[in-house]
Amino acid sequence: MDPADKIAPSILSADFARLGEEIHAVEKAGADMIHFDVMDGHFVPNISIGIPVLESVRRMTKLTLDAHLMISEPARYVEAFVKAGANSISVHCEVCPDIPVMAQRIRGLGARASIAINPETDAGRVMPFAEHLDMILVMSVHPGFGGQTFIPAALDKLRYIRRELKRRGLSIDVEIDGGVKLDNIADVKTAGANVFVSGSGIFGKPDYGKIIGEMRDLIARTRPTI
């Protein structure tokens, strides 16, 4: 059975002066998850938000909080992010020397375990450990800044991952993050993604309900080719 499709607005593109209102607006508009980007200025060349903001967001919504840790030392912080309210933790394979151990730790804390893959990283680095994971996150931009253009090569990576998961009988989430908008969301669904992170594709638009509804309609009318 294929995993359910989920739309995950990324609050990196939200108006932080009105963060609570923005989260309530996308929740009302039908979002399934809130994507929470954490950047340390070391693993990626930018600094974003962290544990105190996640604690505040947790109080604002009952939606799944999908914490994406773009940081150099995730092992030091996964417990703190779960305690702050994260339901899912993504750490990057590029800084994760032992994926099964990391996944076991995250799951042991009560959260879903996910491994993220940068555009230049081969998916083969993660696939041998897929049975330990709840989700694989494919970056379709270079991590560090919102509003970047989608990298088309991510589609081939999605196809490979979903094909290998099906071959092995694994039904886990495949998340796509970076430049996902109305004009390409059907393409990434066709390639095998089922969790769609979108920041500037949603936030800042005049009507969040309309844009999320259109995304959901496109996803529903599209079938993976894998």
CATH class: Alpha Beta
Count of the separate structural domains: 1
Number of strands: 8
What's the arrangement of strands in the largest beta sheet? Answer: 1-8-7-6-5-4-3-2
Strand content: 15-25%
Low-confidence residue ranges: none
Mean pLDDT over the full residue set = 95
CATH architecture call: Alpha-Beta Barrel
Largest sheet: 8 strands, parallel
Q: How do the helices and strands follow one another from N- to C-terminus?
A: EHEHEHEHEEHEHEH
> Looking at this structure, what is the CATH superfamily?
Aldolase class I
- CATH topology category name: TIM Barrel
| Secondary-structure class | alpha/beta
Shape: globular
Structural Rg: 16 Å
The percent range for helix content is 25-40%
- Quote the distance from N terminus to C terminus: 13 Å
Query: What is the count of helical runs?
Result: 7
Structural summary, described in words:
The chain has 226 residues and is an alpha/beta fold. The protein has a single domain, classed as Aldolase class I (TIM Barrel, Alpha-Beta Barrel). Helix content is 31%, strand content 19%. It is built from seven helices and eight strands. It has an eight-stranded parallel beta sheet. The mean pLDDT is 95.
